Amino acid sequence: MRTVKWNGGLLDRIPGWKKVFVVSESRFQLHVITDGKRQSQELYDIVEAAVRGGADVIQLRYKSAPALDLYRLAEAIRPAIRGAGAGLLINDRVDVALATGAEGVHLAAKSLPIAATRPLMQGDQWIGCSVHSVEEAVKAEQVGASYITYGHIFATNSKPGLPPRGVDALRRVVDAVNIPVLAIGGITMENIDEVLATGVAGIAVIGAVMADLEPERAARELRQRMDASHHRPKKALPLAKALSDQHGRSEIVQ
Ligand SMILES: Cc1ncc(COP(=O)(O)OP(=O)(O)O)c(N)n1
Ligand SMILES: Cc1ncsc1CCOP(=O)(O)O
Ligand SMILES: [Mg+2]
What is the pLDDT of residues 109-150, one digit of tens each? Predict the structure, then answer.
């Protein structure tokens, strides 16, 4: 299904019509990962700006943070994310994802395996994981990943000295699986178009939004470029809003 730009008009009067657009499955996902450097107020401000600009998902990633710190940060940013109809993912910590009613978890290389995580999650909660080859991608699909991330596509400060994998390798991963594939690593306004042309479900970024002095504008530019692209995902991710509307996963359990 292709997303159609909504301009209002007569159809506005038909109840439920707009929802058809909200749950459109052809939108590219803008997935913003936190940079692990911010305390709660600063993080809240950036996250609020990012979702206002059009980020679909915020992934809370604080490597080696104690569960309580991660829980409190999630609790602090959740209202901004919910308010914008976006989704929250927790990096690595399945327990924190469950306790916060997040839309899911992104499993890192040293996290619990997907097969051990799946029975713990509600059926529609996302379990994402990073892959580094076609073989790993196929394996992740077989064991039940909701989506996978492949990278790093371009050179990035996050992976100094490591050669980027490039868009041709990304395309081979997209072609090999039937689950959504996000691209990550060094993605900016300068190179996003060639990434979208591969059939990815979207992009995951840290620096392009978190390191920008105007995160709302940065997210909006990426969002607009994705919406305007004539390419579409081979397999898209649903909007987080559709999941939380359905299951009321709106409140953090205290
Ligand atoms: C969406 C997304 N893609 C990739 C990653 C990878 O980051 P990391 O947490 O370091 O996981 P591993 O590289 O150790 O597998 C991510 N967090 N989010
Ligand atoms: C966590 C991670 N995994 C592969 S690349 C990367 C960093 C992405 O950051 P940026 O978008 O700033 O290149
Ligand atoms: Mg990593």
Answer: 999 999 999 999 988 899 999 999 999 999 999 999 999 999
Question: Ligand 3 centroid to 130 CA: how many Å?
Answer: 8
- Whether pTM exceeds 0.95: no
CATH superfamily entry for domain 26-247: Aldolase class I (3.20.20.70)
CA distance 102 to 90: 7
Exposed, middle or buried: residue 59 (CB in 10 Å: 0-12, 13-18, 19+)?
Answer: buried
What is the CB neighbour count within 10 angstroms for residue 188?
A: 16
Domain boundaries, the chain: 26-247
> Could you give the ipTM of this predicted complex?
0.95
State yes or no: cis peptide before 152, omega within 30 of 0. Answer: yes
Give the distance (Å) from ligand 2 centre to CA of residue 46.
18
The dihedral through the CA atoms of 122, 128, 129, 135 has a sign that is positive
| 100 annotated as belonging to a binding site for a ligand | no
Within 6 Å (CB) of ligand 1, which residues are found?
Answer: 31, 33, 59, 61, 91, 106, 108-109, 128, 130, 149, 182, 184, 204
Is residue 136 helix, strand or coil?
Answer: helix
Separation between Cα atoms, residue 191 and residue 167, nearest integer Å:
10
